[in-house]
Specification:
two-stranded antiparallel ribbon, 72% helix, homodimer, globular
């Protein structure tokens, strides 16, 4: 985590404490599943310090609050909310994808079974909402609390629409690039937009938060394309997943969508044939990677990621914030598109 | 539905319209899964009029609102919310239990798969929250809207805690009666309490809604025990499920929990042995039913159901409402404990 911008480490402890105080105040064993997922305990309930993720969304939320004039403390409850929403989506996502590992540890469903994992994920979403009421202690008005609720649940619904599209793509022969961008706009950009909007709205008029949404949208698109690049060309040491993992899982991620669109004739038929196999074996993985090389897929993905990054950075200039905050947003944006984990 | 108190039919159309306007305003195919679950369309998207359920919780919510002095219209958005929460829990419950039928039709997961059904259920929960914002058009203050949100999400979290307990009971040898009552208090009474509380709180001070919670709690317990009775001695024509279905599914429902607690020596061993089987065959079902007869399980369950019914009816007298509304609550309470569907 040394490579991350310093602001992540500056806030990490406070976000972790806020999340912990929300979840740990509950007694039932159900909440142990959440604590395990967050990396705080092992399956026996013993304290551990595992990877809790980057807290990207919570960090963006706090920064949006600070950049619009308040102490980061004021936004901690909602930074926790958005992080809980992200994490509930991961618990469900692991069930939906049948993924057995997350952040180098067994996923919740592999330990407690799918029925309990479904339930724990949904309960985490409800905790995310209840966390918003902690704004009362930060003297945030009822009107502002309601604005937060609306933005939070609209972002969450948008994310679930994206998840619907992503799952539905699995059964489809072909997906075009516009459909793919629409899907990640919903699935990934939603919460990043939401994080920035709720952080800003507790301080400034809701009519003025549009640039935060726009910035978050571009950042989210760049972030997801980078994720998709790492899903093919990332290394297991860094990402926790073997390289070309998305190919083995036959995910319709950006590189594969592009290669389907870009290829023609026999090459296209070969690609389709491989993807139509029940299981993609290692020779097939190598084959696809060589097609990717021939089609220039890596470069195209990098270029597209850069495109949204440029739009995001340009949008930072439209935010009603000071230079110091702008610099933080720029650093985060840059990190997100060059990260290898 | 003729046997139901008239008030159910008086409100049914309005509740249905409110739910429909919430779900149908959304375009993505994702929402078709919800419309299908609600009984409005078939799997092809054609309009149908299937069973949407009793709308018990929505009806109680509207009655609580009317009984405390407002028009039912004012409470329609939140009546829809509580009904959406109930229905999202059914979509997830069917996945968790592996149930293939609900209200005489194939369950959502059997048609669209478990990943999509998990997602559609969670999305329905989020829609339930967004529906609360429709209170704005009913001139409900921001403070009151927040009180609704809090009650709604606290009820929902309590329900999920109950669901956690219910699933965890499956892996346990024995469950005692107190644990069972605690479980249904959380799993079932939660939303019935919640329905009454949110209906009342939009009109009266939140410090005064405690009797609604208490009434809902007793009613919920009686309701669930009646449900458990029907799970053993109900008929397929009425409930849509074969009689003794809960035995075949090895559910730790009230009759079986009681029989485990009440039986001793050889009878207890026999019961345990049957329940330890992987699958309970028809001769075993008959065997258990004869043990139930010997132990007087049916009578005990009826008596316990009646006990909570009596407490519920007594609590109606503590509600700050007029006689007409009291009568409605009494009629519903009575119906819930004598219903055979």
């Amino acid at each position: 985590l040394e490579e991350m911008p310093a602001i992540f480490n500056a806030y990490r402890k406070f976000i972790d404490e806020e999340l912990s105080s929300i979840i740990s105040s509950r007694e039932l064993y159900l909440y142990n599943m959440m604590k395990y997922h967050m990396g705080w305990i092992d399956t026996e309930g013993n304290l551990t310090q595992s990877n809790s993720g980057k807290f990207l969304r919570a960090t963006l939320c706090l920064l949006a609050a600070v950049s619009t004039g308040s102490d980061y403390k004021k936004a901690l409850p909602i930074a926790a909310s958005i992080e809980l929403i992200h994490n509930f989506s991961l618990i469900h996502d692991d069930i939906q994808d049948g993924d057995r590992k997350r952040r180098h540890r067994p996923t919740v469903w592999t330990i407690w079974g799918k029925p309990q994992a479904i339930n724990a994920g949904t309960a985490m979403k409800v905790l995310a909402n209840l966390s918003v009421f902690r704004l009362e202690q930060q003297a945030v008005s009822p009107e502002k609390q309601l604005e937060v609720f609306k933005l939070l649940d609209e972002s969450c619904l948008k994310m679930l629409e994206g998840q619907y599209l992503d799952i539905s793509f699995e059964d489809r022969d072909e997906v075009d690039l516009d459909e793919y961008i629409d899907m990640i706009d919903k699935k990934t950009a939603s919460l990043i937009e939401g994080a920035l909007q709720i952080g800003a709205v507790i301080n400034i008029d809701k009519e003025k938060i549009a640039p935060f949404k726009k910035f978050g949208n571009y950042l989210g698109l760049a972030f997801q394309i980078r994720d998709d690049i790492l899903g093919i060309w990332g290394s297991v040491d860094k990402t926790g997943k073997p390289s070309a993992n998305d190919l083995r899982k036959k995910k319709k991620s950006f590189p594969i969508v592009y290669s389907f669109c870009e290829s023609k004739g026999e090459l296209k038929n070969k690609l389709k044939k491989i993807y139509a196999q029940k299981k993609i074996d290692e020779p097939s993985v190598k084959q696809i990677l060589s097609y990717f090389d021939a089609l220039g897929v890596y470069d195209y993905c990098e270029q597209k990621c850069r495109h949204y990054y440029d739009l995001a950075v340009r949008e930072i200039k439209n935010l009603p914030i000071d230079k110091k905050s702008s610099k933080h947003f720029e650093d985060i944006s840059k990190f997100l598109i060059i990260r290898d984990f």
